[in-house]
Write a structure and sequence with these properties.
The protein is an all-alpha fold and 129 residues long. The protein is built from five helices and no strands.
Length: 129
């Protein structure tokens, strides 16, 4: 795992860098709140055609998808029928143990730095050459 100094150095060295325009950060909250907009922007950013039909599928097991465990996340995904908007809910970090608050405080500046450079649904981006 990357320590916070290394993560901080990496994020500041890479973002923003004018010669590295191929980085496309997606914030999971943005994706869950607006899957079509974020996937469409990502496709445009990487030079792929956006296919809205790819955001939905028939639920259930399929031979082209191999689950490596039987966890609840995979069960939920297998039972799903697509990417649909899901408003997020948040708990309070103040309700967490002290060690969680400490990790949160250490990670938050890095998250905020990366968040400023995330791909947005309404963003016009150029595909990599």
């Amino acid at each position: 795992m990357m320590d916070r100094e290394t993560l901080g150095e990496y994020s500041k060295a890479v973002l923003p860098a004018p010669d590295i325009d191929w980085i496309r950060l997606i914030d999971s909250d943005d994706l869950l709140e607006n899957p079509e907009g974020i996937v469409s922007a990502w496709c445009k950013a990487v030079g792929l055609d956006f296919v809205p039909e790819a955001l939905s599928w028939e639920p259930g097991a399929r031979p082209e998808v191999g689950w490596y465990d039987n966890g609840s996340w995979h069960d939920s995904l297998s039972a799903s029928s697509g990417l649909k908007p899901m408003p997020r809910t948040y708990g309070s970090v103040e309700d967490q143990p002290d060690h969680v608050k400490e990790i949160y405080a250490q990670a938050l500046p890095h998250y905020e730095h990366l968040f400023k450079h995330r791909l947005k649904a309404d963003e016009t981006v150029n595909a990599p050459a």
